[in-house]
Amino acid sequence: MGSSEDIKDYVQCFTVREISVSVKAFSEGTNKYDTVNVIYGIRYQKSLKEKLEKLPKSYPSYGVTQPDELMIQSNFPDCFKNKPLLEAIKSIKFSLNNNRHVMISGNEFLGKI
Predict the structure, then answer these.
(1) Number of structural domains the chain divides into
(2) Crossing angle of the two packed helices 83-97 and 32-39, in degrees rounded to 10
(3) Is 58 a member of any domain?
(4) Are 112 and 104 in contact (CB under 8 A)?
(5) Which domain holds residue 28?
(6) What is the Cα–Cα distance from 40 to 43, expressed in whole angstroms?
(7) Cys-Cys with 95: which of 60, 72, 99, 100 at CB 3.0–4.6 Å?
(8) What does the pLDDT profile of the chain (113 residues) look like in tens digits?
(9) How many angstroms separate the CA atoms of 31 and 91, rounded?
C-alpha cells in the first residue's frame, strides 16, 4: 500500500460497535476529524495514518479537516506536552466518554505509569 488510491480502496473490517460509536459521536457534534482518527486511524502504522489524516481534504462534503485543540485541565501534571502525548490524552478522553476500553502499551522506560 503506497498511494492515496490504495488507501481509498483499502478494505478494513469495522465492527458494529465502532460504527455505532461513530454515529453517536457525529450526532453529538463531535469533531469528525477527531472521531475518525480516534476510532479508525489508531489501527494504522504512523506512515499510513499520516496519509489517512490528509484524505478527508479530498472530500469537500466531509467538512472539518482539522482536529479540535485539546484543552488540558489545569491540574494535569507538569510535564513536556508533545504531540504524541496530546493525541494519547485526546484518544483516551474520547474513548472513556464513549464507554470504550483503553489500553496503553509501549516499550519500557517510555513514561507509562
Answers:
(1) 1
(2) 90
(3) yes
(4) yes
(5) 4-97
(6) 6
(7) 100
(8) 455 565 555 556 678 888 888 899 889 888 887 888 888 777 777 777 777 777 777 777 776 666 677 777 777 777 777 777 788 888 888 888 888 888 877 777 766 66
(9) 12
Here the cell at position 95 is: 474513548
Tally helices (H) and strands (E) across the chain: 5, 0
22 CB-near residues (< 8 Å, 6+ apart): 35, 36, 39
b/e map of 54-71 (b: 16 or more CB within 10 Å)?
eebeeeeeeeebeeeeee
User: What residues contact residue 36 under an 8 Å CB cut-off, 6+ apart?
Assistant: 22, 56
